[in-house]
Amino acid sequence: MIIVPITSNLLFLSPNFNVNSYVTKKTITQGMLDVALLMSNASQLKALLEVGSFYRYYTFMMVLVIASMMLQLAVGVLLLWLSITNINKEKYQAQLDRINDATSVGIFFITIINIFSGVFGIEATKTHAL
Q1: Beta pairing partners, 4
Q2: Residue 100 contacts residue 7 (beta carbons within 8 Å)
Q3: CB-facing half-sphere around the CA of 65: CA atoms within 13 A
């Protein structure tokens, strides 16, 4: 068994395990989830624009949705960078570890923002918007 450090964790791997392939697949999966959430936020933005400033939480929701979308774009760029960089090259491992940490922090903030966005969302209070 080979022990390979990945982002400050130790994984016990079989000799034929390709770490770079695993990281690439993991990153692509995270990217697809990011795209799905971005589409959801675009839908929220559309609904918010249709209701207009009559909605009680219009400004708050606009800030949340736009902040979420901007963070998602930033995380998407970081995920793209992670997917195209070879983790097997030792000179990139520290940089990729920092990018992975930044991506995790970004996803955490996106999650928190979207929880608030869901609570104050148009769909939940559409009948009370005016």
Answers
A1: 11
A2: yes
A3: 22
Residue type, 88: N
8 Å CB contact between 63 and 56: no
**Is residue 120 helix, strand or coil?**
coil
Rounded CA-CA distance 95/82 in Å is 10
pLDDT in tens, 71-81: 999 998 998 88
Q: Strand, coil or helix: what is 76?
A: helix
Q: How far apart are CA 23 and CA 84, in angstroms?
A: 10
What is d(CA 107, CA 122) in angstroms, rounded to the nearest whole number? 23
5-46, pLDDT tens digit by residue?
Answer: 455 444 555 667 676 677 677 777 777 777 888 888 888 889
